[in-house]
């Protein structure tokens, strides 16, 4: 039977399977590069990273990082922009761990404050910190000035 | 406030620290606020004319990066009435700030000189940040358009002393959009089951997020643009400045200011026990002829800043 276009298949795969490392799957379509920014992976030239965007009918992005197993606490912050993402740890081609990202209760140094008059948007030696609330949508409240970011969080990534 | 103040842990540099700061009114529970107000009541006789040695040998540093009269002087008086001493940053132009020293470094240095720091700064969140760099308690005396918790505490004290705080019917009048004073006060009043009337022109209405928070806390709020709708209903009339720069059209500003001005005529049908409050300085919100009325409480309110700040200092440093 002919495989479906996006089905994982050795003949049809757009990006080859990785031997060891991390696969971040079910990233909200279009957010893969922001995921790399949040994880700081763009600043690490030693890792081979594959990015696939707008995969399948469900329109998702996938990121594969070879040779590095990301810890949950490193990855959970991507839930800010991609709450349904899953993390797959690969060893010798096998998925040995799989879990969904969990939105942390606070983040530091990932997003800048929306308030131009906030102390974190100055030359002071302080990283922006936010308390995260998840109701109908994700909201970030600045620990310092109290302002809330509720829309277009990706626009405020540092 | 070692006995009563729950440290807002988030943002603290040392999470195990017993450091106590006064940064926002939201950090306080009703019980904690009551304890401060009770302490202020005990200290009020001293605030009038007396003196105490409760903070003898202790030093308060006042750092005002923005102009202030009432807040700075009342902290100064409060510390001195308690027998303590005050060191003052003075004009920012003569401080290390002009050499480019950042606030974090200034706080690290000053916290080595003093037992507590009072800070007013133009940037929102400055006091929270300062608390992370300070080895002594930091008291927020206003951070930009952000928080001014000691003003809220003295407002609550005034309402409790001169009227009734629990289940008060209170009208907040004027700039409810940008005014930090009314935002903090509305939150605090929600802890006391207040009925809050929000009176403002359309362009200066309280932000929805804030109203939603009040409603969620079970507070009854009524919104109107007309002061006449509420003036004979409320126990407290809390007026704020309406600033000209909020209006693109000067004639619109004049019309709004005129309709919110309190005169003797405005007060003819009010409750006998109505109190009129204002954080001061006032512009044209209250006609000076009202000053002699029994309802006028704004100058006494300003005085109550002294016992309330005495209470805070004694609980933070003592």
Descriptive report:
- The complex is a heterodimer of chains A (158) and B (318).
- By secondary structure, chain A is mainly beta.
- Chain A folds into 2 domains: 21-100, Aspartate carbamoyltransferase regulatory subunit, N-terminal domain (Alpha-Beta Plaits); 106-156, Roll (SH3 type barrels).
- Chain A is 8% helix and 32% strand.
- Chain A contains 2 helices and 9 strands, in the order E-H-E-E-H-E-E-E-E-E-E.
- In chain A, the strands form 2 sheets. In chain A, strands 2-3-1-4-5 form a 5-stranded antiparallel sheet, covered by helices on one side. Chain A has a 4-stranded antiparallel sheet with strand order 6-7-8-9, with no helix packed on it.
- Chain A is elongated, with a radius of gyration of 17 Å.
- Chain A starts with 20 loop residues before the first strand and ends in a 9-residue tail after the last strand.
- With 318 residues, chain B is an alpha/beta fold.
- Chain B has 2 domains: 25-147 and 305-317, Aspartate/ornithine carbamoyltransferase (Rossmann fold); 150-302, Rossmann fold.
- Helices cover 35% and strands 14% of the residues of chain B.
- Chain B contains 9 helices and 9 strands.
- Chain B has helices at 30-48, 70-81, 103-110, 126-133, 149-162, 180-190, 208-216, 250-259, 298-317, and strands spanning 59-64, 85-88, 116-121, 138-143, 169-173, 195-199, 220-224, 236-239, 275-277.
- In chain B, helix 6 links the parallel strand 5 and strand 6.
- In chain B, helix 1 packs across helix 9 and helix 5 (149-162) crosses helix 9.
- The longest helix of chain B is centred in the last third of the chain and has 20 residues, at 298-317.
- The radius of gyration of chain B is 20 Å and the shape is globular.
- Residues 1-19 of chain B have low confidence and may be disordered.
- Classes of the chains: A mainly beta (158), B alpha/beta (318).
- At the A-B interface, loops of A face helix 4 of B.
